[in-house]
Amino acid sequence: MTTRYVKSDGSDVLFHKIVSGLTKAGISLLGSRVLTVRGRTSGEPRSNPVNLLSYKGKKYLVAPRGHTQWVRNLRAAGEGELRMGRRTERFTPTELADADKPEILRAYLKRWKFEVSMFFDGVDATASDEVLLGIAPGYPVFEIHIG
């Protein structure tokens, strides 16, 4: 089985810098945060803008590009930080099983379809549970526990 990873072609670098800059300044774009995780090889902190989904009283990070570097680093580190403005929250993640992802993927797509639809190959929030379950292995989802 191939692990899904949509590598950046570099065209989104400016967008990431803008979102990260605004988020660091305290201006969140629909839930954006700056995720910082210790690199699994270098041990150095690595930062990336992410969309923090609040759903049914819980918080989630979804990786629309698949098994990216931040996903691999988060799995290895077992902890991370989310920043918005001056507020930094340390957290531990619990990765969801594929069977638990459809409802979260649907909520994520409802909230950020305009930003992430190109990574979902035509699948949107109206997709059936079966379709979402079928794509679930390619989209890591973490429930995050602040504190």
UniProtKB/TrEMBL annotation:
<dbReference type="GO" id="GO:0016491">
    <property type="term" value="F:oxidoreductase activity"/>
</dbReference>
<dbReference type="InterPro" id="IPR012349">
    <property type="entry name" value="Split_barrel_FMN-bd"/>
</dbReference>
<protein>
    <recommendedName>
        <fullName>Deazaflavin-dependent nitroreductase family protein</fullName>
    </recommendedName>
</protein>
<dbReference type="Pfam" id="PF04075">
    <property type="entry name" value="F420H2_quin_red"/>
</dbReference>
<dbReference type="InterPro" id="IPR004378">
    <property type="entry name" value="F420H2_quin_Rdtase"/>
</dbReference>
